[in-house]
Design a protein that fits this description.
- A hairpin with a 5-residue loop joins strand 1 and strand 2.
- The protein has 3 domains: 55 residues, no CATH class; 125 residues, no CATH class; 113 residues.
- Helix 7 packs across helix 8.
- 48% of the residues lie in helices and 8% in strands.
- It contains 8 helices and 7 strands; from the N terminus they run H-E-E-H-E-E-E-H-E-E-H-H-H-H-H.
- Belongs to the CTL (choline transporter-like) family.
- Its main location: membrane.
- It is found in: Membrane.
């Protein structure tokens, strides 16, 4: 940073009002200058040429607390990810509250509806495989399942026709208490054995399933689980690269800022020049008297010429505003990067 004993205009310095001077600054010789309203203000002479170059951490305790908080957050996240089972979020649960495919149901990954009637969807059981048979002769008489408090056994016990007839006459639901119906089913969302008769109601089932299939979400979670080490390394590398970026930005802020501004202005200039050249090119086609171009080409050139003519005017305006804006904030940019140049 340049050392300059000349007092800058008041709108280019950092002003410290009387009564708000820090103890550190109050021990130094203060300079009194007028602000933009003519009021006398006292400032630290070191601030006349811009922000201080000699800066450091002003709150060590806060920094240590922040580092400790980040360390605790990383530790909790690691423990939760390594010891938790996020796949349970997508699991189906039986009446005992045990997830199919986990714990005591680890060998029974599919949820099966013992009674496929609307009022009995709570009577479910975890099974090893969803029943699928070609005809009634090959229909199984029992399912390989894990019994629970509502479904005591998975042996076939279902006379739906007579049960519905009795229900219609007596309005008693007790007849369904121990029912276990075995029916053709398909695996829905890689979690549920769903009756084929109900799936047939959805003409677009395949499209529906491909868009909302839970096995896709499960695949995402499994991918995250298998690649967690790579994810941790990626976070560490990203954090390190961020620190390196901040370090180089601190050292090269001036170069980066002025280079970016220069390239921006050069880009605007080239864009304006190209639009102007296209305008002239189409004007030449329109003014051609040698018959080199067809009538259709001349008509298209007329439309294109107007487009590029307007674009040229717009680009000239943008360039003018960019240059004027740079002139207006030049000192602010210089002061903002003063510690780095």
């Amino acid at each position: 940073m340049r050392k300059n004993n000349k007092v800058q205009p008041a709108n280019q310095v950092q002003v410290v009002a009387q009564g708000t001077i820090s103890p550190e600054i109050s021990q130094k010789a203060l300079t009194t200058i007028p602000d933009q309203y003519g009021n006398q203000k006292q400032i630290d002479p070191r601030l006349i040429a811009g922000p201080l170059a000699e800066r450091g951490c002003t709150d060590i305790l806060c920094l240590l607390l922040f580092i400790a908080g980040m360390a605790i957050l990383i530790f909790i996240s690691k423990e939760a990810y390594s010891k938790g089972e996020p796949k349970r979020l997508l699991a189906m649960y039986d009446p005992n509250g045990v997830a199919c495919g986990f714990d005591t149901n680890v060998d029974y990954p599919y949820l099966y509806f013992a009674i496929p009637f609307g009022d009995y969807f709570n009577r479910t059981v975890c099974v090893k495989d969803c029943p699928l048979y070609a005809d009634e002769n090959s229909k199984p008489t029992s399912l390989d399942c894990q019994p629970n408090i509502l479904v005591k056994s998975c042996d076939q016990k279902c006379d739906a026709a007579s049960a519905l007839k009795t229900l219609a006459t007596s309005n008693s639901t007790a007849i369904f208490k121990d029912f276990v119906c075995i029916f053709n089913s398909s695996i829905l969302f890689d979690r549920v054995c769903y009756p084929d008769a109900l799936l047939a109601l959805f003409d677009n089932y395949q499209q529906y399933g491909s868009q909302f299939a839970m096995d896709v979400l499960t695949g995402y979670i499994e991918d995250l689980t298998q690649t967690k080490e790579a994810i941790y390394c990626s976070f560490a590398v990203a954090f390190l690269m961020g620190i390196i970026y901040l370090f180089f930005t601190r050292l090269l802020a001036g170069v980066l800022v002025w280079t970016s501004i220069f390239l921006f202005l050069v880009g605007l200039g080239f864009g304006t020049y190209w639009c102007h050249q296209q305008d002239l090119y189409y004007q030449d086609i329109m003014n051609d008297t040698t018959g080199k171009y067809t009538v259709e080409q001349t008509n298209k050139a007329s439309d294109n010429q107007l487009t590029f003519q307007y674009l040229t005017y717009v680009m000239y305006g943008i360039c003018a505003f960019a240059v004027m804006g740079l002139i207006c904030i030049f000192n602010k940019i210089r002061l903002a990067i003063a510690p780095c140049v």
